[in-house]
Amino acid sequence: MLIHHLRVLPLLVRMHVRSQMEYRGAFWLDRLAQILSYGSVFATIGILLSRFDTLGGWRWPELALLFSFQLLAYSLGAAMSFTQLRDLEELVRLGTYDTLLVKPFSPWAYLIFSGLNVGYTGHILLAVPLMGWAVLSVDVAWTVPSALFFIAAIISSTLLTAAIITMIGATALIWVRSNHLFSIFFGFWELTRYPLNIFPGGIQLVLITAVPLALTSSVPVGALLGKPIPILGDWAGAVALVAGPLWVLIAIAYWRYANSRYQGAGG
């Protein structure tokens, strides 16, 4: 059965990508709009830095690394979760999710890989070149351990992003409605493109614990740059690496719990 699933997954991805690329002109125009949108956000940070030399003790190349890291980790994690889990509410409301439960296939795997979102290409096209410039510009003595930490931190941040989105989407299996939680998610997510230490202590605590999105950006990047990390201190790097796998396990448990509470379209 496992081998069968592994053979089907690439087919699901290929079919969805073909459907997304049917109108290629519109697809790439949309990606350009994404680049311009996030580029304007980064330009706003640049305007702030033109008036003030630093932001929370972070200089321009360091903020560029933070912004690109946050955007890349989000785009990779959300490509595997956001659109698919956002649409889960509608599947539950209409009773369409019931049809997935009778398929000889994991409902989660079918949702994720049949809707793998290549629309995040624009995010990646902006984040990767900016990250390349920032990596060469920041004052970091790159070694094999620091490079491995950087790569592992991106993977962990990607997993953490996907895990949180999965848990939000899975809530629809219990409450039917869950998309309002995404508004809360993105409200906190927008804060994480800035250094954690510029926020009040209460927000810092929330961004590390209840909504741990700081662990996808300023905590791992700050640990790499040797910045003081509020609350976590010297444990920041280790916590950032562990957070992704740990929250994936939590998301798996929550997904199973939500499915056990699902009562079908009739409630």
Quick recap of the structure?
Keywords: Membrane, Transmembrane, Transmembrane helix. The chain is mainly alpha-helical.
Task: Provide a descriptive summary of the structure in words.
The protein is mainly alpha-helical. The protein has one domain. The protein is built from 14 helices and no strands. It has helices at residues 2-20, 24-51, 60-79, 82-86, 88-94, 97-101, 107-114, 121-137, 144-170, 172-175, 180-189, 201-208, 218-225, 236-261. The chain starts with a helix and ends in a 6-residue tail after the last helix. The model has no long low-confidence stretch (mean pLDDT 86). This is ABC transporter permease. The chain crosses the membrane at residues 32-52, 64-83, 108-136, 148-176, 196-215, 235-255. It comes from Rhizobium fabae. Keywords: Membrane, Transmembrane, Transmembrane helix.
